[in-house]
Design goal:
- The chain is built from five helices and two strands, in the order H-H-E-E-H-H-H.
- By secondary structure, the protein is mainly alpha-helical.
- A two-stranded antiparallel sheet has the order 1-2.
- A hairpin with a 2-residue loop joins strand 1 and strand 2.
- It starts with 8 loop residues before the first helix and ends with a helix.
Length: 189
C-alpha cells in the first residue's frame, strides 16, 4: 500500500496561486477572450490545421456525448448530436473548436508549474495521465451538459454555459485535480 507523503506547502501554494491568477485574468478578460477566440477559430478554419482533429477526435467525442445524453432521454440522430423535439430538428454541431482545447492549454501550463519539485518520475507520469484523462472527461461532461440544457431548457441557458460557465468548469476541475495530485499522487524523492 502506498504511504501518504505530504508535499511541501510552498509547492501547493505556488500551483494554486497560478491557478487563481489564471482565474482572475480570465474573468477580467472574458469578453475579449470570447471575441478573440472567435477570430482565432476563423483563422484556423481557413487553414488545414484543424482537419485531423475534426476527422478523428470529434466523431469519437460525438459518440461519447450521444451516449451520455441518451441517459437523459435524449434520442439523437445517428452520427450527430442533433435531436428531434416537438417535430423540429434541433441540436448542435460539435467542431474541433468545441472539444476543449483551451482547457488542455491551461492544463499544460499548470503542469509546467505544478510538477516543479523533487517528485518521482512515476508519480509525475501518473499526474500527467490523470490530468489528460480528467480534462478529456470534463470536456465530455461540459459538452453533454450543454446538449442537455439545449434540449430541456432552450438555447439561452445552453449558450450561457457554452460561452461563460465552461471556463469555470475547467478551472474547478483543475483546482480539484491539483489538490488530489498533491494529496494522493505526487511523491517526493
Amino acid at each position: 500500500m502506498k504511504q501518504l507523503r505530504f508535499i511541501s506547502v510552498s509547492s501547493l501554494k505556488k500551483t494554486f496561486s497560478y491557478l487563481f491568477l489564471a482565474l482572475v485574468v480570465i474573468l477580467m478578460l472574458l469578453p475579449f477572450v470570447t471575441t478573440f477566440n472567435e477570430l482565432l477559430t476563423r483563422i484556423v478554419e481557413n487553414s488545414l490545421l484543424y482537419k485531423p482533429i475534426q476527422k478523428y477526435v470529434v466523431p469519437y467525442e460525438v459518440m461519447l456525448v450521444r451516449t451520455i445524453v441518451s441517459w437523459f432521454g435524449i434520442a439523437t440522430i445517428p452520427g450527430t448530436v442533433s435531436f428531434i423535439k416537438n417535430g423540429t430538428n434541433s441540436g448542435a454541431f460539435i467542431s474541433w473548436n468545441c472539444i476543449g482545447w483551451q482547457s488542455f492549454i491551461i492544463l499544460l501550463l499548470s503542469l509546467k508549474t505544478g510538477l516543479i519539485g523533487r517528485f518521482t518520475l512515476f508519480s509525475r507520469i501518473e499526474v500527467l495521465a490523470l490530468g489528460i484523462i480528467g480534462t478529456f472527461m470534463i470536456n465530455i461532461f461540459r459538452i453533454s451538459l450543454i446538449i442537455i440544457l439545449l434540449y430541456y431548457f432552450g438555447r439561452a441557458p445552453a449558450a450561457i454555459v457554452h460561452d461563460y460557465a465552461a471556463v469555470f468548469i475547467s478551472l474547478v476541475w483543475l483546482f480539484g485535480f491539483w489538490w488530489f495530485s498533491y494529496r494522493f499522487v505526487l511523491e517526493e524523492k
